[in-house]
Specification:
Blueprint lengths: L5 H18 L5 E8 L11 H12 L6 H5 L2 E5 L5 E7 H8 L4 E6 L2 E4 L4 H4 L10 H4 L7 E6 L40 E6 L2 H7 L17 H10 L3 E6 L2 E6 L7 E6 L1 E2 L2 E3 H14 L3 E4 L1 E2 L9 H11 L3 E5 L18 E6 L3 E2 L2 E5 L4 E2 L16 E5 L7 H5 L8 H4 L3 E5 L5 H10 L4 E5 L17 E4 L1 H16 L5 E6 L3 E2 L27 E4 L3 E4 L18 E4 L2 H18 L5 H10 L22 H4 L6 H4 L4 E2 L4 H10 L4 H8 L21 E6 L5 E12 L5 E8 L4 E6 L2 E4 L5 E11 L8 E11 L4 E11 L3
Parallel strand pairs: 6-10, 6-13, 7-10, 13-15, 15-16, 16-26, 20-21, 21-22, 22-23, 30-37
Antiparallel strand pairs: 1-3, 1-4, 2-3, 5-12, 5-14, 8-9, 11-12, 17-25, 18-19, 18-24, 20-24, 27-28, 29-31, 31-35, 32-34, 32-36, 33-35, 36-37
């Protein structure tokens, strides 16, 4: 996913507001989200809903009945902010915008999903020395709200054996719907709701033969993410015989509340905001959101707005970074009050090699539980791009592009792109192929995802794909048919090195605020085993009628709930910690090395990864339980941050619900938000010497009497100083300040280019290291 320059964003946003009137007839309606001042409701109306309905009736055209006008209100919001979502024409939008008490009218966006050994890999072990699990009682009094595609409640991962009643603070409910009676909730799944008004306003009434009008999951994504966050211990667990063992979520006793907002056509802002609104009212402690879209200014970003209100209410919000990697500027969900999670590998994979007719073996990965190809027999091998009438379509194995007369009985090499990886296998199978090799393109690099295929298949990297194509070409020239077979080698454990930054994981820099390093950290997201619904085959293809209790998926969608579950454990162990303190504990204890003790690799290239790939590093749960110091941030600090970002008072009020009369005349520089990482961005503009400073405050959450000294690892070519160099604490909760000064020299760069250099500062008391990345970016303007 390429991120356009900010000037393009401004144009796009402007077009969103004017497109209805410029391109559509006056009666054409789209969904808009209307924010109002909380205290602006006229006294004549008993409730805000009465006011909203009256407003809609007053602005409607003559052809609308009063009931039809008020019926176009889709959602009413009370907790994320005061306001509503409604279907409005271009003329009505202008009338609403000019109405008294209206702060903003935002066009709706559609979002998309960012699509076990991981507890053991993360060091979360059961037994007497359970560490974080034991200290938090496995998260039993915490509630994780999962905003996703719903849930399949009958899965064993969601059983409530030995759990007490829901926490006394819980105010949520189980909303019944199609194939989801209210009694399906229990002491584990304590809440379930669904929101589809925004979806149906844009797409018409849902097809109830393929979707459930209820919290029941018809996709699988929500069931999978919920069980990663808080699934119970289940044994035996596997997918088609792969990854056998015990399945467990991060917080096995934490309670779950499912908020279904994602449907066949995507996840709509108005529904997402309704879910945030409900989750805040219900009393969740953590919100997990594996959904994202394009990056826009925070006051136009429904997820950022909803997450701010949740954070303001003391709720930790984690969100997936997106699957746009390995390119830069692809990270999404970048608001500083959201914990943004990228994806790494664990020490397990599923090798499936290609044995070529020339004797070469090429490594790949795959999951397939059906009849295997013979290991001692070679099958005819063809490249799809050489066989179809439309080389582009056939090379990608798009539906209908392969000739059965050519493909039958052969292994087919397909290129990655356009349609899903598993669907390509289905296309090959329908055309009579006996197997598929799926080759990465140059952009994908060497990152491999093990999919559940419907025929013998394997995925190979870009270099291997080129090797196989060359073998096919050379065989054709020599008049000797190319041949191959695919050999699955099952499940392999203790793979090294690990972790590795997953190729698909979205990367920085932060497109909206480059002074805030995003993603914040990474967590396991490649080939993760978790619960799966009955009605969806493991490949996710409609024709796949196989049933499995668990499935293996990859994506930052899978990484996000790992952090959500860990946040619940930390909140249970430290109930006084704020969302920012929890994030700080996770970030300052994260690591950037792998099992060899060297810098984590980037899966896409095999080279060392950077802070733009992994942020603070890979999450380390046991160390996060006792971080020593935390960087705390209040809602008012975020308001100051928005002021420093040159947002207007009205923009800030849209995000924060807080009326800001005026930002301070002398605005703090944007990097002074008390974030656990420090990022400086210098525009050279012909300057020779460049410098800035960061003011930070740390709170002691370790030993009452403790002294921390600073260790500096300066970025190459950068001078970093810290004052004071020693912090002496006398009590828990005490706060102390320090200043970090950064000085560097301009470097020769071509116009429009940049260079990134990274280092760190660490505060150590002899037992703990509180580490913060220091990132310096030098940019040469055009």
């Amino acid at each position: 996913m390429a991120i356009p320059p900010l000037s393009t964003f401004s144009l796009l946003i402007s077009l969103l507001f004017i497109s209805s009137s410029a391109l559509n007839p006056p009666e054409y309606r789209k969904t808009f989200i209307v924010r109002v001042q909380r205290d602006a409701k006229p006294l004549v109306y008993p409730t805000h809903n009465h006011w909203y309905e009256s407003t809609l009736r007053s602005i409607s055209t003559a052809s609308d009945s009063a009931d039809a006008a008020s019926g176009r209100m889709l959602h009413s919001y009370d907790n994320v902010f005061q306001g509503f979502a409604a279907e409005l024409s271009a003329i009505e939008v202008e009338k609403v915008r000019s109405s008294p008490g209206v702060i903003a009218v935002l066009p709706e966006q559609v979002r998309h999903l960012h699509t076990t050994r991981s507890p053991e890999f993360l060091g979360l072990k059961t037994g007497n020395s359970a560490g974080l699990l034991k200290e938090s009682d496995f998260g039993s009094d915490l509630v994780i709200g999962v905003i996703d595609t719903g849930i399949w409640p009958e899965r064993e991962s969601f059983n409530d054996r030995d759990l007490g009643p829901p926490p006394a603070k819980w105010r949520g409910k189980c909303v019944a719907g199609e194939k989801f009676p209210a009694n399906l909730c229990n002491r584990k799944l304590i809440g379930a709701r669904y929101f589809c008004s925004g979806y149906e306003a844009s797409n018409g009434k849902m097809n109830e033969t393929t979707e459930f009008r209820s919290p029941r999951d018809s996709d699988g994504h929500g069931t999978h993410t919920a069980s990663i966050a808080a699934g119970r211990y289940v044994f035996p667990a596997s997918t088609l015989g792969y990854a056998r063992g015990v399945a467990a979520g991060m917080a096995p006793k934490a309670r779950l509340a499912a908020y279904k907002v994602c449907w066949n056509a995507g996840c709509y802002d108005s529904d997402i905001l309704a879910a945030f609104d409900a989750a805040i009212a219900d009393g969740v402690d953590v919100i997990s959101l594996s959904v994202g879209g394009v990056v826009v200014p925070y006051y136009l970003d429904a997820i950022a707005i909803g997450a701010f209100s949740a954070s303001d209410a003391g709720i930790f919000v984690s969100a997936s970074a997106g699957n746009g990697g390995p390119g830069g500027l692809t990270v999404t969900n970048v608001a500083p009050w959201v914990t943004t999670v990228g994806a790494g590998t664990i020490d397990r994979d599923f090798p499936a090699v290609v044995k070529l007719g020339n004797g070469r073996e090429v490594s790949g990965v795959s999951i397939y539980g059906g009849p295997a190809l013979a290991h001692d027999k070679l099958y005819p091998l063809i490249y799809a791009g050489s066989e179809g009438s439309d080389g582009y379509s056939s090379s990608l194995c798009l539906d209908g592009s392969l000739d059965p007369n050519v493909v039958k009985g052969k292994i087919v090499l397909c290129d990655r792109g356009i349609n899903s990886r598993a669907v390509k296998g289905e296309v090959v199978k329908k055309a009579g192929g006996v197997g598929m090799i799926l080759a990465n393109g140059v952009f994908d690099g060497e990152g491999l995802v093990a999919d559940c295929h419907v025929l013998p298949a394997t995925a190979v990297g870009a270099v291997a794909g080129d090797e196989i194509r060359k073998y096919i070409q050379s065989a054709e020239k020599s008049k000797s048919p190319a041949k191959a077979t695919i050999i699955s080698r099952g499940t392999r454990l203790n793979v090294a090195p690990a972790p590795v930054v997953a190729a698909f994981s979205a990367r920085g820099p932060n497109p909206e605020t480059p002074e805030i390093l995003k993603p914040d950290l990474i967590a396991p997201g490649l080939n993760i085993l978790a619960a799966w619904p009955d009605n969806v085959g493991p490949s996710g293809i409609a024709s796949d009628k196989r049933s499995t209790e668990f499935n293996i998926l990859s994506g930052t969608s899978m990484a996000c709930p790992h952090v959500s579950g860990l946040a619940a454990l930390l909140k249970a162990a430290h109930p006084e910690w704020s969302p920012a303190a929890i994030r700080s504990a996770l970030m300052t204890t994260a690591y950037s090395h792998d099992s060899r003790g060297e810098t984590m690799l980037d899966e896409s290239t095999g080279n060392a990864s950077t802070v733009m790939d992994y942020g603070a590093g890979h999450v380390h749960p046991q160390k996060a339980m006792d971080p020593g110091l935390v960087y705390d941030i209040s809602s008012y600090d975020y308001v100051d941050f928005l002021c420093s970002s040159n947002y207007t008072a009205k923009n800030i009020q849209v995000v924060t619900r807080k009326a800001v009369a005026v930002c301070r005349r002398r605005r703090a520089h944007i990097g002074n938000l008390n974030y656990p990482t420090l990022a400086a961005v210098f525009q050279q503009y012909g300057k020779h010497r460049l410098s800035t400073h960061f003011i930070r405050t740390v709170t002691n959450v370790g030993d009452p009497d403790s002294v921390y000294t600073v260790k500096i690892q300066a970025p190459a070519g950068v001078v970093v100083t810290v004052a004071p160099e020693r912090l002496a604490f006398r009590r828990v909760g005490q706060k102390l300040n320090f200043v970090v000064r950064v000085r560097t020299e301009a470097v020769k760069l071509s116009p429009g280019s940049s260079v990134v250099r990274s280092g760190s500062i660490s505060w150590s008391d002899g037992k703990r290291d509180v580490r913060s990345a220091v990132v310096v970016t030098l940019q040469q303007p055009l």
